[in-house]
Amino acid sequence: MTPIYPGIMTPAITYPEVITLEKLQLLESLNPDFTLWFYIDGTDISYPVMYSGDNDMYLKRDFYKQSNISGSLFLDYRNTQIKGNTIIYGHNMKNGTMFGELRRYSDEVFFKQHTMVYTYSEDQIIAWKIFSAYPTNIFNNYIKTSFSSKDAYLKFLNKLQEDSLHKTDIVLTENDDILTLSTCRNGEGNNGRFVVHAVKIQTFPMPVSSGDTTVLSN
Description:
- The chain is α+β, with helices and mostly antiparallel strands and 218 residues long.
- Helix content is 13%, strand content 28%.
- The protein has three helices and eight strands, in the order αββββαββαββ.
- An eight-stranded mixed beta barrel has the order 1-2-3-4-7-8-6-5.
- It starts with 20 loop residues before the first helix and ends in a 13-residue tail after the last strand.
């Protein structure tokens, strides 16, 4: 029998227990626009993500659709499923809430220490790994979702990785699904953006559990 050498084995990927199935179901019952829960490991970014079919509804509305300058995290109107390039928008709040912490990815130490992203839905948990972060503007089509071929999609992914302020050894393929996290940044008037990209690396079934169902408060 061939011996196993733990020293060269890839560590098993796990996920933090950020939210339960019951809480996800409660959120959906409170607002059918709720799509998934989003969390970046080691940060305060842990929020519901909404989908309304347009990019205006949750720009300045909270989970309960009440007026709120912080808005909500929400999916691009073209992302009817979590596949290909899935874009999540969020405000860059001065107090660091919503996507305010994304700007910290300009620092290489922070980038290397906070690489794991998790999304939670009723059917599965997905682990994503960050491979790119950079300042840009609205004239850079990093939010493209439709491609003429797999080769065109791979060229798009490679460009996102080349644009990164910090390099990784992640090798992207034409079959990868990615998350694009987009927020505003100071400079260039209203056109400046800061972007973080993560690639899907593993999925897990959402476990059935029970407990407190308090998630959000008015």
